[in-house]
């Protein structure tokens, strides 16, 4: 039979594990969104510069 202290410690431990787990999931999602948004970013290049580089 567990003592009250052991039960409280286990509840706190489980709560902390759940908080860390959810924080890790959220930070991973944010990192993935940032990475994907940076990879698919296409800068606008003026047509004059493209034509000038094509004529060289």
UniProtKB/TrEMBL annotation:
InterPro entries: AgrD. NCBIfam families: quorum_AgrD. This is Cyclic lactone autoinducer peptide.
């Amino acid at each position: 039979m567990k003592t009250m202290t052991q039960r409280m410690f286990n509840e706190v431990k489980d709560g902390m594990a759940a908080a860390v787990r959810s924080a890790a999931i959220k930070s991973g999602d944010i990192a993935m969104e940032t990475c994907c948004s940076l990879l698919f970013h296409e800068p606008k290049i003026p047509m004059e510069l493209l034509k000038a580089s094509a004529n060289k």
